[in-house]
UniProtKB/TrEMBL annotation, chain A:
PANTHER family, per the entry: BRANCHED-CHAIN AMINO ACID TRANSPORT SYSTEM PERMEASE PROTEIN LIVH (PTHR11795), HIGH-AFFINITY BRANCHED-CHAIN AMINO ACID TRANSPORT SYSTEM PERMEASE PROTEIN LIVH (PTHR11795:SF371)
Compartments where located: Cell membrane
Pfam families associated with the record: BPD_transp_2
Coiled coil: none
Topological type in the membrane: Multi-pass membrane protein
Keyword Transmembrane helix: yes
Species annotation: Microbaculum marinum
GO CC field: plasma membrane
Transmembrane segments: 12-30, 60-80, 92-113, 133-157, 186-210
Keywords: Amino-acid transport, Cell inner membrane, Cell membrane, Membrane, Transmembrane, Transmembrane helix, Transport
Protein name: Branched-chain amino acid ABC transporter permease
Family statement: Belongs to the binding-protein-dependent transport system permease family. LivHM subfamily.
GO biological process per UniProt: D-alanine transmembrane transport; L-alanine transport; L-isoleucine import across plasma membrane
Automatic annotation (TrEMBL), chain B:
Record InterPro entries: AAA+_ATPase (IPR003593), ABC_transporter-like_ATP-bd (IPR003439), ABC_transporter-like_CS (IPR017871), BCAA_Transport_ATP-bd_LivF (IPR052156), P-loop_NTPase (IPR027417)
The UniProt record lists the keyword Repeat: no
CDD domains: ABC_TM1139_LivF_branched (cd03224)
Protein name: ABC transporter ATP-binding protein
Family in the record: Belongs to the ABC transporter superfamily.
Amino acid sequence: MDRLVQTLVDAVSVGGLYALTALGIGLIFGVMRLINFAHGELIMIAGYAVLLMFDMPVGLVVIGALAASVLLALAIERAAFRPIRTADPPTLLISSFAVSFFLQKTMILFVGSRPKGVDFLPDLARQVEIAGIRLQLLQIVTIVVSAILLVGLSWFLRTTRLGLEMRAAAENFAMAQVLGVRANRVIATAFAISAVLAAVVACLFVAQTGLVQPRMGLQLVVIAFVGTVIGGLGSLPGAALGGFLVGATTILLQTLLPPDLRVFREAFVFVAVALVLLLRPQGIIPARGLKERI
Amino acid sequence: MTAAEATLAPLLQVRDVTVRYGAITAVHGLSLHVDAGEIVAIVGPNGAGKTSLLSSIAGLVRPQAGAILLRDVTLETVGLENVVRHGIALVPEGRNIFASLTVLENLQLGATIRRDAAVRSDLQAFFESFPILGERRNQPAGLLSGGEQQMLAIARALMSRPTLLMLDEPSLGLAPKIVEQVYAELERIRDGGVTILVVEQNAARAFAVADRAYVMRHGRLALAGTPDELRAHADFDAAYFGVSMAEAAPPEAAGRP
């Protein structure tokens, strides 16, 4: 019983991290049809901000990580994506690879490619007992923080003026502009929010692994991207659910598979992904209104 | 330009506008004008370049040549997002309402450029004139019928309080009874002081409300005049379809539900 609950809590907390990452990718795809693989570098830069500041008060470290990630996201949007905003999706995708590689290699140039250890939030590594079951505090914090961000983002999109403009732009950008919605404002906001999600993921991920390295965002982004696809590309609830399912499934397989099959857990995940895409090619929660464009 | 001349000058002037998509020229050096308070119709067969012309005025496509003036503002340089800020609202072909957003949210987006307190009372007034939409204000707009969506698209455009309302094929895909309602609404809007430029394949329907009309064919103006002049014109049928008006009558006249 204890083991089962522990595994579930582990799966939910990892699922939460992937859900946040998938949401960050889905948000940018929604407003500009860009699959932003440089999202991983937003996570990475926040990780290095944590490394740089880890002995300061936690609040400051988190603010530093958020600032680093948001500034980088706005700079990428301005320098790399704004000039080619109206390009077709493949061009945008390839540009995001270019940005991603450029940032990774630049980082390797300055700090080297070796992982660096950082003891961030060591207090959260301890176990707590809830209803007689011992759980890791960090996992509970991860679940709570993920849930708060999901609810907060949903509140922002549903109730604020900028959120409404973002949802309209995601459905039909040209029509939103005809009504006077400012493209620069909407897209910059999407990048900033996506960076906030990336920075939070970085803080939790670094606290969990204790490591920072230039490629740290890549694996998260690849798996989360798979999540946005099975969730339904262009749908935010789909992205969150898809990211969560992929992350949680990975952990469950890790625990439930016989030991000698565990090294192949990714293969099992991708078989499941292929099955979802065969049965529901439009995703679990398909995006609405994507076809209606001016 | 003096103030007196400014009020005499047309509200909208399109001068020698050319719109090209790659090798295809949709509009060839076309000129027309719309005076304040008019309903002006642009009619013509499918592919005549009507939508391209409207898109160039709305800022959706940039004309390769020519000038578009709203009073003394050069529209083709203000940018897509700012056309509405100069007082032009567009109801595009196919309506383009935001299907996943609620009726209310669609209308709020129509008021994107406004920050005044009257937005709320404008919404209230709209829901009172269209109680069906008022009852469904919190439902996704994609669930509305075609006629309701057209009314919503028009109301959304009016939420910006435009001086010029442009509509692209407002009768498209609607039952005759609904088309009547839409056109009755257009006359009410004009009586409320909004100038209207309407593109319509259904020439007979548009002529019934228009003060003046232009006939477009192959990207050029074929004819211009009042509806009466155009109907009486020997070349009208040829200019329009190369067939008689009876045959060119819209499919709605054939009695679809």
